[in-house]
TrEMBL record:
Domain Major facilitator superfamily (MFS) profile: 1-143
SUPFAM superfamilies: MFS general substrate transporter (SSF103473)
GO molecular function, one term: transmembrane transporter activity
Residue ranges of the TM segments: 25-42, 48-66, 87-110, 116-136
Entry keyword Transmembrane helix: yes
Primary location: membrane
Gene3D superfamilies documented for this protein: MFS general substrate transporter like domains
GO cellular component: plasma membrane
Protein name: Major facilitator transporter
Keywords annotated in UniProt: Cell membrane, Membrane, Transmembrane, Transmembrane helix, Transport
Membrane topology: Multi-pass membrane protein
């Protein structure tokens, strides 16, 4: 499963450089939330193979829409001066809240409760909807110059110029000092 996660994260990360950071995050969060219903159902009926298949789909593929883009999107929301602090506080508060969800799940549906997959799946999907709303309302960061990251008024690099620079950087064929300097300033 880890090999699939690694490949999916790389593919989605590359895709986010072409279509933006928000679309893969939205697709990943919402599809993983929807798959949680099937995953929890598979556990409830004690189907090992269905559980494994849905686990691979949910964690190995769907979740990578978020996981493959998050390392770029989240730090890019902050100016360089506060990037580490903003990232660290947000990441640690989020990790703490996520660590508390099993307690919430047991409070909502203690062992032996009827329809646990539906109850916990709904709660999980609700949490995913909140995350999707946050991703939807955040500003897009791809095609931004490095020095403009975190600036709410920054203007993205024109798409044609961005694609040209990205192609040069990906090919390792930056031709002039100006293009190289600009290429270093554009997130690729």
């Amino acid at each position: 499963m880890q090999a699939g996660q690694l490949l999916a994260a790389a593919v989605v990360g590359n895709l986010s450089d072409k279509i933006g950071r928000r679309p893969p995050v939205l697709a990943g969060v919402l599809s993983a939330g929807l798959l949680s219903f099937g995953y929890l159902y598979a556990i409830s009926i004690h189907s090992l193979w269905l559980t494994v298949v849905l686990s691979v789909l949910m964690w190995g593929i769907a979740y990578q829409g978020f996981n493959g883009v998050f390392p770029s999107l989240f730090p890019e929301l902050f100016r360089t001066r506060v990037r580490v602090t903003g990232m660290a506080i947000g990441q640690n508060v989020g990790t703490t809240l996520a660590a508390l969800t099993p307690t919430l799940f047991v409070a909502v549906a203690p062992p032996g409760t009827a329809n646990i997959p539906l109850k916990i799946g709904s709660l999980t999907f609700g949490i995913c909807l909140v995350a999707a709303f946050a991703a939807f309302t955040t500003r897009e960061t791809y095609r931004m110059r490095l020095n403009d990251l975190g600036d709410r008024n920054a203007v993205p690099v024109p798409k044609a110029e961005y694609e040209r620079l990205r192609g040069e950087v990906m090919a390792g064929s930056t031709k002039t000092a100006d293009a190289q300097h600009l290429g270093n300033q554009v997130r690729s």
